[in-house]
Amino acid sequence: MARILVLTTGGTIANRRGPSIAGAIPSLKGDELLAMLPRGGIELFFEEFANVPSSHVTPASGLELARRVAAMLARDDVDGIVITHGTDTLEESVYLLDLSLAITKPVVVTGAVRATTSVSYDGLANLAAAARVAATPAAADLGVVVVFDEEIHAAAAVQNLHPHARGAFGSPGLGPLGRVEGERVWLARRPFPRKLIACEHLEEMVDLIRLTQGADVRLLRHSIEDGVAGIVIEAFGGGRVPPWWLPHLSEAIKRRVTVLVASRCGTGGLGDDYGYVGAYHDLQRIGVLFAHNLSGPKARIKLMLALGAARGPSELRGFFDEQMSR
């Protein structure tokens, strides 16, 4: 019988209302979740890492969670790990874990969009499906995955697509890695190869700026003047910015601020053959880095880890090489 550790961090899956509380908050404990779950031939045991909404989670606490998971993976009495997490920042936490953990056993992240007091509470179904994946040895080759609404998603591709729907998570452009159907786990494809970024600390001073039509440079100027270590730009399409942004991005790079460009489309590689000012060729010329196939929030997480790990500009650039994995 597979022995699966469920590491709880809070979020809606643990939410309930109290008599003196206006709204639902994370308060449900592991033994209470266990009492509601069917056994299904898997032995579950629970440990609490935190009990907070995921809007309160930080990348630094995510790195701390990664250390805890690494210690649990080394235990002989653990065959797989399930992490319960709030949906607001789940995609960032799962990607941080995927980048920073050497996976030797299945690691699965799940949660819920409905509180326990809702008649359509989805937490138990998600937790049961996640445990089933964590008990599947072949899932160790997938890296850290998200299991939601019986679908299995890769950490680099998964995005929160809806705030309330049970199928809140998807992998735009790629689709799920597989599905859970009853007690069977079906794997349809493998994720892209991944490259670990081992670091003892991450760089928290990294800003994310999303481009919009006619956007001025006030936010960019604030980031530069504040002396941040890195700036992620969610640019248009395959990597394009308004022409009036170029001098300021060049200045940031001259001040040794790392500028990383992702697409505001949220997925897909970067690059184009346009010759006008502000297109991909100009960004390439001034020396920005490119976050291929990553959303802005994930690109920020990767840059935080890369800045914490890199011993110089060449190693930093290597983490974002177009030929590298995600």
TrEMBL record:
InterPro entries: AsnASE_II, Asp/glu_Ase-like_sf, Asparaginase/glutaminase-like, Asparaginase/glutaminase_AS1, Asparaginase/glutaminase_AS2, Asparaginase_C, L-asparaginase_C, L-asparaginase_N. The active site is at residues 12, 87. One of its GO terms (molecular function) is asparaginase activity. Residues 206-320 form the Asparaginase/glutaminase C-terminal domain. The keyword Phosphoprotein does not apply. Residues 3-190 form the L-asparaginase N-terminal domain. GO terms for biological process: asparagine metabolic process. Its EC number is 3.5.1.1. Keywords: Hydrolase. It catalyses: L-asparagine + H2O = L-aspartate + NH4(+). It holds the Pfam family Asparaginase. It comes from the Bacteria. The keyword Hydrolase applies. Substrate binds at residues 54, 87-88. This is asparaginase.
